[in-house]
Amino acid sequence: MLQKITSFLKNNYDELIFQTIVTVLLFLVYSYNQENANYYTQSNITAIPYKIPFFLNYAIGAWLISYVLLPKLYVKKDILFFTIGLIIIEGVVIIVDEFILEKIYFPTTRGTYFPGVIPTLIETQPVIITIILFKFVWNFHKKQREVKQLKNLVKDSELQFLKSQINPHFLFNNLNNLYSHAIENSPKTPSIIIELSSVLRYMLYDCKENYVSLEKEISHLKNFTELYKLQIEHRGNIQFKTDTFENSKLKIAPLILMVFIENAFKHSTSNQSDNIHITINVKTSEQGVLKFSCKNNYIVSNKKSNLESGIGLENVKKRLMLLYPKKHDLNIEMTNNIYKVELSINLKQDR
């Protein structure tokens, strides 16, 4: 029994503090109101002693309703037993108030008669209803916190799921390319393996956190681009430009920008064997706004619809919505055989 009480106090410490403060304030208000009641001021007894037992009678009734009847019966929709319990508690409060306390403290005034059920209810209900209302307020606040925590858990779970999709998607594309070079005994194969190892090392070890250093992410993007450049060789022109404002504190969600670069190479090489042109720009401002653009050419074919589909692009759109709600702007255009992605993210805004 003692262990259960200790556990209850530990798990409901914040609520107990809240209810204690509310009860004390409510008692002060109740005491002030009683000073103006004629049938109480006519008594010669000290004011404070009678106020405590009367108030405790109401408070105990309210606590029984709040912590027993409501969670045990009303929440479980046992309306019949809830109503019976409510009537019993209210009846006990009235009996204690009118036939015990009144006769002890006011034997010559209020204790000489019973004003009736309705007048007594009107007298006792303000304290009881107020305590119950504050219990509802606390429960609402608690539920709001639980909902927020649940949303955060769902958000984190979804982010982890989305991030887990990236590695298989990346490996699937690049292992196929590596296999082709190995079959052809290409001299570029060792370099591709080294670059792939560097990229995977970053993805496996540096991307465990939700946010990484922007400097590291840009370095990873350069290595990633070099990996694809080794595969394209002399079939096109690849440019990677950076113009970042010096701010080592900037962080970004990892593996977001990589998806756009990967798509650019995939779309450019899927239907053309040469004249591949890809331009990548990464800029940051003094205000911490990242501006990323990736532009590539492509040949119109029956597979054009694939440019806007696939796991990677849908993945990154979801991650942006989860990680940077109302803090990013993504535009994708396809005009004159040019596929262009422009993304801006405010990295300094509070997340």
Number of strands: 7
Enter the CATH topology name of the largest domain: Heat Shock Protein 90
Strand content: 5-15%
- The CATH class of the largest domain is Alpha Beta
Biggest sheet strand line-up: 2-4-5-7-6
Q: Please describe the biggest sheet, giving its number of strands, its sense, and whether it closes into a barrel.
A: 5 strands, mixed
- The string of secondary-structure elements, in order, is HHHHHHHEHEEHEEHEE
> Which residue ranges are poorly predicted, with pLDDT under 50 across at least 5 consecutive positions?
38-46
Shape: rod-shaped
CATH superfamily of the largest domain: Histidine kinase-like ATPase, C-terminal domain
Give helix % range. 55-70%
Give me the number of helical elements.
10
Oligomer: single chain
SS content category: alpha+beta
Known CATH architecture of the largest domain: 2-Layer Sandwich
Explain this structure to me?
The protein has 10 helices and 7 strands. 64% of the residues lie in helices and 13% in strands. By secondary structure, it is an alpha+beta fold. The chain has 2 domains: 113 residues, no CATH class; 198 residues, 2-Layer Sandwich (Heat Shock Protein 90). The chain starts with a helix and ends in a 5-residue tail after the last strand. It is rod-shaped and about 110 Å long.
